[in-house]
Structures are given as structure tokens and as C-alpha cells.
Design goal:
The protein is of the alpha+beta class. Strand 1 and strand 2 form a beta hairpin. Helix 1 packs parallel to helix 2. The mean pLDDT is 95.
């Protein structure tokens, strides 16, 4: 239930930031807004955590940085 709430929170935050897509490919986080990828320092951010809950927190932190 806790993970479901965290995903819902990410969806709301993404909507507020006009993010249309969030994908994780291997450890790369690909965030799309207005059909353009958002990169940090010219690169896709890498998720460092392996546990689902920790990864969701990483994604939230990156969304807040947009």
C-alpha cells in the first residue's frame, strides 16, 4: 500500500511539472516533458538504489529538482 501511495504522489508531482513520461531503462531515468527528454548535466540521471522504495524516493528528488 505504501508503494502505491508513493507512485500516486509521483504522478501528481509529474503532472505539476508538466512531465508526460517517466521511464527507467536499466538504471537510467528518462523523464519526458513536451516530447523532449530532460537531462541533468547533458546526461540521463542514473538511479543508484536497488530497492523499489528507495528508487521512488530518488525519482521524487529528481522531479523536485526540475
Amino acid at each position: 500500500m505504501e508503494l502505491l501511495l508513493a507512485v500516486g504522489e509521483l504522478k501528481i508531482l509529474a503532472s505539476e511539472k508538466a512531465v508526460t513520461s517517466i521511464e527507467v531503462e536499466e538504471d537510467k531515468l528518462k523523464i519526458t516533458r513536451h516530447n523532449d527528454f530532460i537531462q541533468f548535466g547533458g546526461k540521463f540521471p542514473r538511479l543508484t538504489k536497488k530497492e523499489t522504495k528507495a528508487r521512488l524516493k530518488e525519482i521524487k528528488r529528481l522531479l523536485l529538482a526540475i
